[in-house]
């Protein structure tokens, strides 16, 4: 029961992060939001493994934590390789 | 045992609350650099409290080792990711507010 | 070579912690994968000072405990800013001296600054760390230099 409640708070945080990812305004805001979304996914998977009572989900959470980090660094590299004017079109400076 | 249970419930709910606060901060804060701090909040204390709560429930077992490893990975990678983000945004020309006052 | 062995030992411990299975075939696979990873990292030349086992002293857990406490305090400060963004946010960019003599401990310092919410290290320029602080309390906390002194204390032991 308590796990379900905690999992729901994680889902709420993910929804808020998703809203920020959709709102932008710069590409960096979106990446921050996606990063938060990924970290919360790790915690959500860990909580779900307790809700379901399967230990195996913990391994998934572990792997996801690593993949999430590598993905953020890869996206950052990709964005920086793009031309500045393309980044400017993503959104204006605040 | 009831003490451990209550402590772990407190940690789980507190972690969820910190997560939601971080999410609200992510929406409310005015610019990119301040949002980075809100993201840091959900990456550190929220993860810390929830994993600690789960470890209290799991007791001494292989599961706890894995949970501790998740926490270790998160705490090592999240500052690296935030720093890489801030640095990338800075080199891209996104000026942080309050740079003028750095000479004070 | 010493570093390769210590890296292999750490990886073996990690592998045992993750699998928890002690059947001979699976153990052999684990030994093979640890050997392969150690050989690859030796070939890629990514093994450095940070794999020195002498760096893990009793001071590290003490520092981590203090750091967790700092994280809690800093989180409360940022949480106050969430409730009242206009009144509480006071963004500044600071330059903080990093007195640590070695690169590894300077990076540890910069990472600790980033790990506490409210402060993010933007850049490491020689002996200075450029820090972005969200609130007044966060800026004062970094400027007081207490964390830097603690990292220096951490460095003393591992010399």
From TrEMBL, chain B:
Keywords in alphabetical order: Membrane, Transmembrane, Transmembrane helix
Domain of life (superkingdom): Bacteria
Matches recorded under Pfam families: PhaG_MnhG_YufB
Membrane-spanning parts: 6-27, 48-76
Keyword Metal-binding applies: no
Alphabetized InterPro entries for the sequence: PhaG_MnhG_YufB (IPR005133)
GO MF: sodium:proton antiporter activity
Name of the protein in its database record: Sodium:proton antiporter
Species for this entry: Wenzhouxiangella sediminis
UniProtKB/TrEMBL annotation, chain C:
Predominant cellular place of this UniProt entry's protein: membrane
One GO cellular component, as annotated: plasma membrane
Keywords, in A-Z order: Cell membrane, Membrane, Transmembrane, Transmembrane helix
Record has Membrane as a keyword: yes
Membrane-crossing residue ranges in chain numbering: 61-83
Protein localization: Cell membrane
GO-annotated molecular function: monoatomic cation transmembrane transporter activity
Keyword set includes Transmembrane helix: yes
InterPro entries on file: Cation_antiport_E (IPR002758)
Membrane topology annotation: Multi-pass membrane protein
Family: Belongs to the CPA3 antiporters (TC 2.A.63) subunit E family.
Name listed for the protein in its UniProt record: Cation transporter
The organism of origin for this protein: Wenzhouxiangella sediminis
